[in-house]
Design brief:
By secondary structure, this protein is an alpha+beta fold. It is 39% helix and 13% strand. It is elongated. The protein starts with 7 loop residues before the first strand and ends in an 11-residue tail after the last strand.
């Protein structure tokens, strides 16, 4: 088995994809730091750094399926990243999941198999 290294997953235990990615990380021999972001919340700085490391925009990280995305008018393509980030801090459910961070990279693990790229 490959050598274990630090892995962090921003996890929502109610999400089947997030649970499956966590199982894949553990199955690869890692003991990940599990951050339940719905409880822990986010800061704008944290989100900006996470999205930059993953090479995606706030728009790409928006969980468009969340009812809050529609209710807050965030699905309009004209909404700025600053407004998206503010809404994500206020409503952590608006961040797509799961994000995984390892020494090999940071990514949004959708589809779940993508996590293999950084394990």
């Amino acid at each position: 088995m490959a050598k274990s290294f630090p892995v962090t997953i921003y996890h929502n235990p109610k999400c089947s994809t997030s649970r499956q990615v966590l199982e894949m990380i553990e199955g690869a021999g890692h003991k990940p730091d599990v951050i339940e972001y719905l409880k822990a919340g986010w800061t704008k700085k944290q989100l900006k750094e996470l999205f930059a490391a993953a090479g995606i925009t706030a728009r790409q990280a928006l969980r468009a399926k969340a009812k809050e995305a529609d209710e807050l008018g965030l699905l309009d393509a004209k909404v700025s990243d600053a407004k998206l980030l503010g809404a994500m801090v206020e409503h952590p459910v608006l961040v797509e999941r799961p994000f995984v961070v390892s020494p090999k990279g940071t990514l949004l693990s959708r589809p779940k198999e993508r996590v293999k790229e950084i394990l």
